[in-house]
Amino acid sequence: MNVFTLNLTNENVTLTAYIPDLSPEMPNMDRKKAILVIPGGAYKFCSDREAEPVALKFLSMGYAAFILRYSLNEDSAFPKPLNDAEEAIELMRKNADEWHIYPDKIAAIGFSAGGHLTAAVSTMGRVRPNAQILGYPCILEKIGAILATPIPGLDKEVDDKTPPAFIFAAYEDGAVPIENSLEYARALRQKKVPFEMHIYQTGYHGFSTAEKSVYDRESDYEYNAHCKNWFDMCITWLEKLFG
Questions:
Q1: Which pLDDT score is estimated for 18?
Q2: Which of 152, 14, 123 is nearest to 4 (CA)?
Q3: Could you give the CA distance from residue 172 to residue 191 in angstroms, rounded to a whole number?
Q4: What DSSP string runs through 68-128?
Q5: pTM
Q6: All structural domains of the chain
Q7: Which secondary structure element, helix H or strand E, spans residue 34, and what is its range?
Q8: Is the torsion defined by CA of 176, 179, 180, 181 positive or negative?
Q9: How much helix, strand and coil, in percent to the nearest 5, is found in the chain?
Q10: 61-86: pLDDT as tens digits
């Protein structure tokens, strides 16, 4: 596997690539679908448990994975983070041949504030991913009160160029209410953008892959373990979309 990190234009912004090696034993894997992972963290930090653990899950399914660590805190006012996501996607498409990925089969996945950035590049970006995956995303303008900076409300930005979406969240999420997911889904429906959505009745905010490795307490894992099937459902959805 080829692992490397690129510095992007904005200060302290990086794109880390995980590109599986080619092998003559797997001729059908000479070019791969790609996933851009955008961690959460309230635009104050990039959560490690929503970064590499997520990338590794997609790597295990044959995807090339890229982690974007974007502009934060005093640098997080829009459009800086949006520019970071646009630049990451542009790099992935520009280097598609060298990195052995399909330029038209790039999905972006984001969690919480990273879900906001994923939805932002999917609705407002000059370049956009081919699919968006949103985990308990921040969407509504009013949720900016708990973030590092005010944010644009993305339920107002959906258009006919917005890519299909897979959304998952928990009803009891006390940090980012599910109204964020529901209103975004409503906007997608109004613009006839296809989507699939799963709302778990129970689950803490920030459950990530919901695997034991992302928790520091056994009780947290046990409480959120039922949420882990979002990944299998997401892969099934992506395979139908990308073929």
A1: 98
A2: 14
A3: 28
A4: EE---GGG-STTHHHHHHHHHHHHHHHTHHHHTEEEEEEEEEEETHHHHHHHHHHHT-SS-
A5: 0.97
A6: 2-242 (3.40.50.1820)
A7: strand 32-38
A8: positive
A9: 40, 20, 40
A10: 999 999 999 999 999 999 999 999 99
